[in-house]
Amino acid sequence: MKRSTRRRLVQGVLYAVLAALLLALVLAADWADIKTQFFASAGWTSWDSWGPLITVGAKNTIIYTVIAFAFGLLLALVLALMKLSPLGPYRWLATIYVEFFRGLPALLVIIFMAFGIPIAFQWTPPGGTVGAGLLALVMVGAAYMAETLRAGIQAVPKGQTEAARSLGMSSGRTTVTVVLPQAFRIVIPPLTNEFVLLIKDTALLSVIGMQVGEREVTTVARDFFSSGPTAGTATSLVQAAALYLVITIPLTQLVAWLERRQRRTR
Amino acid sequence: MSTPAIQVKDLHKSFGDNEVLKGIDFHVDNGEVVCVIGPSGSGKSTLLRCINRLEEANSGQVLVEGVDIFDPETDLDAVRSRIGMVFQQFNLFPHMSVLRNLTVAQEKVRGRSKKESVEIARANLDKVGLSGRENVYPGHLSGGQQQRVAIARALSMDPDMMLFDEPTSALDPELVGDVLDVMKTLASEGMTMMVVTHEMGFAREVGDKLVFMDGGVIVEEGDPREVLGNPQHQRTQAFLSKVL
Ligand SMILES: Nc1ncnc2c1ncn2[C@@H]1O[C@H](COP(=O)(O)OP(=O)(O)OP(=O)(O)O)[C@@H](O)[C@H]1O
Ligand SMILES: [Mg+2]
């Protein structure tokens, strides 16, 4: 047999196996059940479901993500600069912080901030339970973003610093006008990834019990799971999934595009 | 006798166990052009970088216009702003336009107004033959153009002296001439210059003094035509026979 013939034969078999598997899946699936459980029209075509999911859930998800990202980035910048400090104790503190929070489940930190701290100190962080949960997301997110920023800062060529210093710029001025703008450009794709991770991590807040107006997408969907027009079906959860994907897929595509563009201009 | 622009006394510098500068003494007078030549690894760049303290010397003294730059009381940023430095790899700021490259330090270090620094920047761009390129980003320029922008950036600070570290070594041969021409103009205007270079023609034509370094010491120095035409030391002879 010729090599090209054999290759085509192998490919044909692979496609046939795939087609058989798909066919088996389609035949085995209970389509009526899937429709009533996941795609109940009482949910998908009703503003009674979409209304709270979007105007409360999605809105709060976005607000929480932006807040956690902004403060997390700020803290991450401080940590990254500490990690690059010539002073040992600053470096050690930043390293301990980063290793500590990268090693813990975000869920544990959220529960700790929302329930552990208030019980231990009779004190609730500003913003109540939600504030405590967000604080936890900030602390965990900052640990990851600090590493990203540090790598970005170190990726700026040393000659840039030397050129700035030889013009008489102070070390701080050099960092602000020459190093950080270039570092941020380098880390935009990984930071966008962090943003997507945070969007998904805000769902963890559903464990801390929020006021009705404070609930994010997953919590709102979970409420509809047990009450409302689609109670007893998973429809509201599938709707929530659709909402997340509408936000996250364009962002991950954006990251891919940014990375391609960066590779081209290198 | 006036204070020399640069005076180096018994300068030593090591990287770990590797002693790169083994006691360097020399000076550059005001308005003088001093060229430094020598084999790769002889410490030329290190010497130049010790003069504005981009590299920390281990012992010895560097006086810039009489000011001891190793003295902790010295305002190092102020001294550096009076020493223009041009690097082999240009080191332009890639996220800033050509104009911004030339104005940013004028504003942030010299405290000049935006209007004044733009005027000075334009004059210096004109001087290096690149007027009209203000809004271009460095990545869109040829190596020779980038190096001329780098020279204009240094000149915009009105430095008292200029240090060049192999300014033409990273350039395609056909682009070297433009950069050397700019440097010749500077020299003829009386700029104090210290130039690490492999361009023997430039050293012979423009230099007031030639320094030959090898193995971390100055082996020979003197009038460029003398040193190049009639080298006294065997090591100088060996080096020149290879490069000429
Ligand atoms: N940052 C550094 N860390 C360790 N060693 C260094 C460093 N910079 C330079 N050296 C060493 O110091 C020696 C002198 O280097 P230097 O760059 O001053 O030589 P040079 O005369 O400029 O050579 P070239 O003509 O190749 O530029 C070399 O052996 C080099 O490996
Ligand atoms: Mg060198």
- Structure classification of chain B: alpha/beta
Low-confidence stretches of chain B: none
- Average pLDDT score of chain B: 94
At the first level of CATH, the class of one domain in chain A is Mainly Alpha
InterPro entries (chain A): AA_ABC_transptr_permease_3TM, ArtM/GltK/GlnP/TcyL/YhdX-like, MetI-like, MetI-like_sf
GO molecular function (chain A): transmembrane transporter activity
Pfam families (chain A): BPD_transp_1 (PF00528)
Subcellular location (chain A): Cell membrane
Give an overview of the whole structure.
Chain B: It is a peripheral membrane protein. The complex is a heterodimer of chains A (266) and B (244). Chain A has a domain at 59-214: MetI-like (MetI-like fold). Helices cover 81% and strands 0% of the residues of chain A. Chain A is built from 11 helices and no strands. With 244 residues, chain B is an alpha/beta fold. Helices cover 38% and strands 25% of the residues of chain B. In chain B, α3 (98-110) packs across α4 (114-127), α3 packs parallel to α5 (143-155) and α4 crosses α5 (143-155). Chain B is globular and about 55 Å long. Classes of the chains: A mainly alpha (266), B alpha/beta (244). The interface between A and B is medium-sized, with 19 and 26 residues. The complex binds adenosine-5'-triphosphate and magnesium ion. The site of magnesium ion (MG) has 4 residues of chain B, from α1.
Topology:
The complex is a heterodimer of chains A (about 270) and B (about 240).
Chain A: H1 3-28, H2 31-38, H3 41-44, H4 47-83, H5 88-102, H6 106-121, H7 128-155, H8 158-166, H9 171-201, H10 217-226, H11 235-265
Helix pairs in contact in A: 4-5, 4-7, 4-9, 4-10, 4-11, 5-7, 6-7, 7-9, 8-9, 9-11, 10-11
Chain B: E1 6-15, E2 18-28, E3 33-37, H1 44-51, E4 59-64, E5 67-68, H2 76-81, E6 83-86, H3 98-110, H4 114-127, H5 143-155, E7 161-165, H6 173-188, E8 192-196, H7 200-206, E9 209-214, E10 217-222, H8 224-229, H9 234-243
Parallel strand pairs in B: 3-8, 3-9, 6-7, 7-8
Antiparallel strand pairs in B: 1-2, 1-4, 4-5, 9-10
Helix pairs in contact in B: 3-4, 3-5, 4-5, 5-6
The structure holds adenosine-5'-triphosphate and magnesium ion.
Adenosine-5'-triphosphate binds near residues 15, 18, 20, 38 and 46 of chain B.
